[in-house]
Specification:
This protein is mainly alpha-helical and 57 residues long. It contains one helix and no strands. The two termini are 26 Å apart.
Length: 57
């Protein structure tokens, strides 16, 4: 079983320097983690739907 990811929280206002030269930026990391979390949520929902569909058949 895959580890359940925790929903990432947005960086605080003072976590970003605003300079645009950081690589990666705290926002880049946040968006990457959020994408992984969202994809996992879609997968969980799809599996739950399949399970529900099988139970109601």
């Amino acid at each position: 079983m895959t580890e359940l990811l925790e929903k990432p929280s947005q960086p605080a206002d003072d976590d970003c320097c605003g300079g645009g030269a950081c690589n990666p930026c705290v926002w880049d990391h946040f968006y990457a983690e959020r994408k992984k979390w969202r994809l996992q949520q879609v997968e969980i929902q799809a599996k739950a739907k399949v399970k529900t569909d099988k139970e109601t058949s």
